[in-house]
Structures are given as structure tokens and as C-alpha cells.
Amino acid sequence: MRALALLSGGLDSTLAIKIILDQGIEVEALNFKSVFCTCTPKTRSCSAAATAAQQLGVKLYALSSTSEFLEIVKKPKHGYGRNMNPCLDCRILMFRKAHERMKETGGSFLITGEVLGQRPMSQRLNAMRLIDEEAGVTGLVVRPLSAGVLEPSIPELKGWVDRNKLLSIEGRSRKPQIELAESFSINDYPCPAGGCRLTDPGFAARMKDLIEHEPELLLSDVKLLTVGRHFRISPTAKAVVGRNEEENEKLSTLRQDKDRRMEVVGLPGPTTIVRGQVSNEDLLLAAAITARYSKGVDLPQVTVAVWNGNAAEASELCVAPADTASLEATRVCRK
Ligand code: SF4
After folding, report:
1. How many Cα atoms within 13 Å fall on the side-chain side of residue 220?
2. How far is residue 90's CA from residue 217's CA, in Å, rounded to a whole number?
3. Averaged pLDDT, 19-36
4. Which residue's CA is minimally distant from atom 1 of ligand 1?
5. How far apart are CA 47 and CA 9, in angstroms?
6. Is residue 335 scored above 80 in pLDDT?
7. What is the pLDDT of residues 46-81, one digit of tens each?
């Protein structure tokens, strides 16, 4: 008997796999990666999933679902959660992909670490049923942590999995899982994460702004949302300003051929990337915002170098640092 488990690397999915392994069932783990993950990447999978798979002694398969995920984020059939997180559609996609992988590898059922009532959007009973149904996996998902409070799955009914050895955890408390981890001597696991980047209000505001202004959602634009302060300088252009040396370097690596790069001349200051179709006024505004975050903030005039695309030579703009009103009028943040 073989099963495929969704493994985020968090405690719940790790425990779920351990419970099934202890029944003598072979398990392969599947880790989903997307540009919205907050985990630390390790080769193709996230490092927490890689560590958990190693501890459990199971094979780990990593799958990147970013392109399909971008389509979902733009217009989720089942709507968003509190921010821009389309959890139901996202779980349907994951389960569908997991089902495909399960069939390819000769598996008989799926395992998840879901706990009834733990997450407000995707771990309610009705939501779980809907996800299973739309992903075409009804009856095939074993949820070892909450099985006792859920309808028996096919593997439980057929006796492939001993239902008596599954648990009946429900609700938001983490205590039962922490006690279980201790009993299994599982000590190395990450703190519970609140979800992917789309659940973060700041990131969600930038994502919303992008969807509103860019009909074609590109991965390069989404990656840019993970760095810096964002300013919508016109309906067709935005400026992204680094907040520290690390972000300045990251912005330089995320720069696309058509972007403008800005830096203040002769004074410490940020790197700014200007993306989109820009007028001269837009460039002056982006330069003024760049100057505002430089050491020249109190000077009447600051010179800002502007590199256009891959040009080696920069042009220069002389601007007064932006005032607070123009910063706040253009800053992309939660309304
Ligand atoms: S928090 Fe993000 S990754 Fe997790 S289910 Fe929701 S949308 Fe998907």
C-alpha cells in the first residue's frame, strides 16, 4: 500500500505522515512551491519540507505551481480570504496536482495534515468537502489528525488504514499536536505560519494594485512585490524603492531590460526601479521619491542618475525630494 502526502514542512503535515508510516504504509511526500511561499527555499522544495522528509525517511517530490496559481489569484472562483489569499481555489489546485502525482506513482490515497476548524477558510467541514469534490478526490483523502471527527474515507472503510489509530483533533489549539510531537520525539519543526504571502496585508495591497493595473500577471512583476516600498506613480508605471542594502541589491537583480534604475549621485541613498510606460513627469516623480529616501532629504535639490534599460551611461535629473503629501498619494498600501 502506498500513499501520497502533502507536506508543507509544518508540524501538522509531518505528524500526519508519521501516523500513516507507523501503520506500515509507504508514503511519498509532495511539497508545493510558489512565488508566494514564505519559506526558505532549498533546491526545489522548501527547506522545512526537506528537513521534515529527511526526519521521516520519506521521498520528497517538489512541484512548482506558480503559473497556474497566478491565474487563480487573478480571479478565484471561490473568492479571497481576509486578504488576497484564494485558499479554496489554491487547495483545489494542490489536491488536483497531488491526485495526478498519486496516480503516476501508483499510490492509492492522499494524506494531509489538515485539522478540522484550524483555518477559517479552508479547514471548515463544508470547505473540505467542496475542495475534495472539485479536485475529484472525494473519499480519497485521509486526514489522520482529524479523522475521528470526519466521515470515514475510502482507505479507512476498506481497512487499508486503521481508523482506530487515527486522531480526533479539532479547533485552533496547537496543544494536542505539540504533545504528539513530543511523544514521537519530533523536536525540530518550524513555528506555525499564518499562510503564504497573500495573507500578509502589505503584500496583498501590492498584489491588488498589480492586478488592477496589469491585466497580464507576469511572474517578474509578482517577484518585484516581495521587495521595497512601492509607489504607483501613474496608471501605467510604478516605482519600487529599496529599504536597505540587501533590498537595493535584490532590486538590481530583479531589474528587467525595459526598467529604469535610479540612484542618487554623490550621496548614500536607495536603488529605485521604475517599471512600466513612463512620461517625463513620472520619471521626475520617481526621482523625487528616490531623493526623499536618500541622505539628501533636507537639501533643496538632489541629482539622481537614471539608467534606461541596459544602457551603461546614465542621464541625470535634478529634483527636490518629494514631500510627504506626494509620497502618501502614491504609496501602495492597505486602504
Ligand atoms: S494561505 Fe496561501 S498557500 Fe495556503 S492555502 Fe491559502 S492561498 Fe494557498
Report:
1. 13
2. 17
3. 96
4. 195
5. 8
6. no
7. 888 999 999 999 999 999 878 899 999 999 999 999
Q: Is 233 helix (H, G, I), strand (E, B) or coil?
A: strand
CB 228 within 8 A of CB 203: no
Cβ-based burial of 269 (10 A; exposed 0-12, middle 13-18, buried ≥19): buried
Closest-CA residue, ligand 1 atom 6, reads: 87
- Ligand 1 centroid to 195 CA: how many Å? 6
Helix and strand tally (H, E) in the chain? 12, 13
90 lines ligand 1 (CB under 6 A): yes
- DSSP labels for 150-204? SPPPHHHHTTSS-GGGS---BSS--HHHHHHHHHTT----PPPP--SGGGSHHHH
User: Is the separation of the CB atoms in 162 and 155 below 8 Å?
Assistant: no
Task: Return the percentage of the chain with pLDDT > 90, whole number.
Answer: 87
Residue range 167-208, pLDDT digits in tens: 999 999 999 999 999 999 998 887 666 689 999 999 999 999
Q: What is the pTM of this model?
A: 0.91
Q: Which residues contact 85 (CB under 8 A, 6 or more apart)?
A: 121, 195, 196, 198, 199, 204
pLDDT at 99: 98
Pocket flag, ligand 1, residue 123 (CB < 6 Å): no
Please give the domain boundaries of the chain with CATH numbers for all domains: 2-183 (3.40.50.620), 200-330 (no CATH)
Atom of ligand 1 nearest to the CA of 32: 3
Amino acid at 75: K
- Give the span between the Cα atoms of 259 and 276, in whole angstroms: 7
Handedness of CA 33, 35, 36, 40 (dihedral sign): positive
Ligand 1 pocket check for 87: Cβ under 6 Å: yes
- State the Cα–Cα distance between residues 130 and 240, nearest whole angstrom: 39
Q: Read off the pLDDT of residues 195-250 as tens digits, 9 standing for 90 and up.
A: 899 999 999 999 999 999 998 899 999 999 999 999 999 999 999 999 999 999 99
